[in-house]
């Protein structure tokens, strides 16, 4: 039996990128057959909900300088540890606009969503592409096997609102960041928890 693992991600999360990289490499001991079900979410909405704010309140960075410095160093360290290329074209405090790509991803399923997700992660984190550029998005979507018309469709405010609602619902289920994996109603948070997830799935399959 194929195990379904819900994969909650936001393209702006470097750790979600690392998780996607690890899943492709399959280097964390997963012996069972699984289906990775992509669940795009808005990380800004999650962060606002955590502090009791409205989903799209003005984003306020709550990290103190030492934690911010640690985070940036840790990202570079983990990229090297996982063997993931890390050459983003932007630097903090600027932030990439990942919203158009997330809206498109919310309209995709199966292998097309998986291929699109991977290409967007690569484009943002080491290919130095502008993932908010419609031309870039159309090219990636076509290469993933999707309909390029979805680039325009994803600009509909209703698509944005629907994804916002899905993010709120994910938070209500216990999703507090990206990447988050849910299998058998159990939550695993972070690229470094893929090993534990694999251990649990393998044990269940063997039993």
Characterise this structure.
With about 210 residues, this protein is α+β, with helices and mostly antiparallel strands. The protein has one domain: 3-Layer(aba) Sandwich (Glutaredoxin), CATH 3.40.30.10. It contains 9 helices and 4 strands; from the N terminus they run βαβαααααααββα. The chain has helices at about 15-25, 45-50, 65-80, 100-105, 110-125, 135-145, 150-155, 155-175, 195-205, and strands at about 5-10, 35-40, 180-185, 185-190. The protein has a 4-stranded mixed β-sheet with strand order 2-1-3-4. β3 and β4 (about 185-190) form a beta hairpin. α1 crosses α5 (about 110-125). It is globular. The two termini are about 10 Å apart. The model has no long low-confidence stretch (mean pLDDT about 95).
């Amino acid at each position: 039996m194929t195990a379904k693992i819900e994969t909650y991600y936001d393209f702006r999360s470097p750790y979600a990128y690392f998780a996607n990289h690890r899943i492709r490499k399959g280097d964390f001991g997963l012996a069972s057959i699984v289906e990775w079900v992509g669940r795009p979410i808005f990380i800004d909405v999650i962060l606002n909900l955590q502090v009791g704010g409205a989903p799209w309140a003005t984003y306020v960075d709550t990290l103190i300088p030492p934690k911010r410095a640690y985070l940036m160093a840790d990202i570079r360290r983990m990229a090297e540890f996982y063997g993931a290329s890390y050459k983003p074209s932007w630097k903090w405090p600027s932030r990439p606009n990942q919203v158009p790509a997330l809206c498109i991803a919310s309209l995709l399923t199966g292998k097309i969503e998986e291929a699109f997700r991977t290409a967007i992660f690569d484009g943002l984190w080491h290919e130095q592409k502008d993932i908010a550029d419609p031309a870039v998005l159309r090219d990636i979507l076509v290469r993933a096997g999707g309909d390029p018309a979805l680039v325009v469709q994803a600009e509909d405010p209703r698509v944005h609102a629907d994804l916002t609602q899905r993010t709120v619902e994910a938070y209500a289920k216990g999703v507090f960041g990206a990447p988050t994996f849910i299998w058998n109603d159990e939550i695993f948070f972070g690229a470094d928890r893929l090993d534990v997830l694999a251990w649990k799935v393998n044990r269940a399959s063997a039993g």
